[in-house]
Amino acid sequence: MPVRVETYDRTEDAARALSSSRSARFLGGGTLVMRAVNAGDQSFDTIVRLRDPSFSTIRSEGDGYTVGAGVTMAAVAQSRDLAFLAPVARVVGGPAIRNMATVGGNLFATGNYGDFTVALLALGATVNLAGSSGRGIPIDDFLRDRERHATSLVLSVTVPRPREAGAFRFLKVSRVKPKGVSVMSIATYLPQSGGRVQGARVAYGSMAPHPVRATGVERALDGQALDAAAIDRAAAAATQGLNPPTDAIASGWYRTEVAGVHLKRLLAGERR
Amino acid sequence: MAKKPIQFHLNGSEKAIFVEEGQNLLDVIRRGVGDLTPKYGCGQGTCGTCTVLIDGKPHLSCLTLAETIEGRQVSTTGGLQRGAELHPLQKAFMEGFAAQCGYCTPGMLMAAKALLDKNPNPSRDEVVEAISGNICRCTGYEPIINAILEAAKAGGARRYG
């Protein structure tokens, strides 16, 4: 097999190995990197591994949580602190995938994968890279420039705690139940003040090459009471500025047609 | 390519073996150790037929870098039966016609074992969730779900550890 594996115990060493080679990939849970190895991907020849237990810890910090990049979806689903993210982690893959797939890896998932990152985008998380002196990158900026960050080592993600229960909602739309790949995923964070939405963040997965904000929807909801009229206006703006991709799961046309329907159901709190 | 020595436990017995760099666990179990029970299906994490338990939890062996299992406990379908006696799940699968072509069966059995070890009396929904990462193209799933519920009802699945 044409790959070399480099294993490190210190994050600095792993980060250096990753940044010094354009043909190195970092191994998280293996669901992306080993998949590429099995498919004969020739774009990398080195796998970098890190054996640092702190890479897989969840810490409460200030008004949020810092989740190690090596934390698995199963660990998120079981975490008492991250209970608001459990419904998201539970719809990623099947049980075996959830025991392997990591928060850090999810940030780099392409195509119809990466639903967890959609939730992180709606919640306004920051991504902490090795060697960046403690200042995280807003996840919006990280995703916009994701390819460039592939040579950086993601250490953790800092997720703000939702200000009120129920302000954060998530929906994964798939054709196969209970486990299926995403037609789209939608995450909304709509904190309210005085009965009106203030600082709406709405994010989609599978509606662009990487998770994106639905700025039209956010504009339609900001400053409004979350009533039927506002929800209708939000649904009408569901795909504003977006050009959803066509792939094996759904066509761009279909995604455009149904995005407003699913968004409306999520906002209205309808269970499906 | 350098080979690396690793030690791990397969179905309770210790294995010491050289693995190639980048080799996945499934390949090591099949070609290296000679346990042919876990199957190679998609190699992409979609089908679940390579499912094995690592420290009691289901993992996809085709997506597990072999050298990461140093010192850990790996279980496959090959370790389910005791002598001539089949595991209660195997019996239920046989009696309930839960295997047709049989290619998904090793993964289904390990996913089901992980469930019953943790939750000896699962609901139907919990069974469906437990095998949601395993694809079967023959049975339509109903006989598999029923067999797992039967095995749970018959009890004794835990005795097999």
What does the secondary structure layout of this molecule look like, with pairings?
The complex is a heterodimer of chains A (272) and B (161).
Chain A (H helix, E strand, L loop, with lengths): L3 E5 L2 H9 L4 E3 L6 H6 L7 E5 L7 E4 L2 E5 L4 H6 L7 H4 L5 H6 L2 H4 L8 H9 L2 E4 L7 E2 H6 L9 E7 L7 E7 L7 E8 L2 E2 L2 E2 L3 E5 L6 E2 L1 H7 L6 H9 L15 H17 L4
Parallel strand pairs in A: 1-3, 2-3
Antiparallel strand pairs in A: 4-5, 5-8, 6-7, 6-8, 9-10, 10-13, 11-12, 13-14
Helix pairs in contact in A: 9-10, 10-11
Chain B lengths: L2 E8 L2 E8 L4 H9 L17 E4 L2 E4 L12 E3 L12 H8 L9 H14 L5 H7 L11 H13 L7
Parallel strand pairs in B: 1-5
Antiparallel strand pairs in B: 1-2, 3-4, 3-5
Helix pairs in contact in B: 2-5
In DSSP terms (H or I, runs of 4 or more residues), the helix count of chain A works out at 11
Name the shape of chain A in a single word: globular
- Rg for CA atoms of chain A: 19 Å
Q: Which structural category fits the helices and strands of chain A?
A: alpha+beta
Q: In terms of structural class, how would the helical and strand content of chain B be classed?
A: alpha+beta
CATH architecture of the largest domain in chain B: Roll
The level-1 CATH class of the largest domain in chain A: Alpha Beta
Distinct helical segment count of chain B: 5
* Biggest sheet: strand arrangement of chain A: 4-5-8-6-7
The helical percent of chain A reads 25-40%
* Residue runs with pLDDT of under 50 for 5 or more positions of chain A: none
CATH-assigned fold name of the largest domain in chain A = Uridine Diphospho-n-acetylenolpyruvylglucosamine Reductase, domain 3
Strand order of the largest sheet of chain B: 2-1-5-3-4
- The level of helicity of chain B is 25-40%
Poorly predicted runs of chain B:
none
Q: How many beta-strand segments of chain B? A: 5
Largest sheet of chain B: 5 strands, mixed
- Write down the overall geometry of chain B: globular
The portion of residues forming beta strands of chain A comes to 15-25%
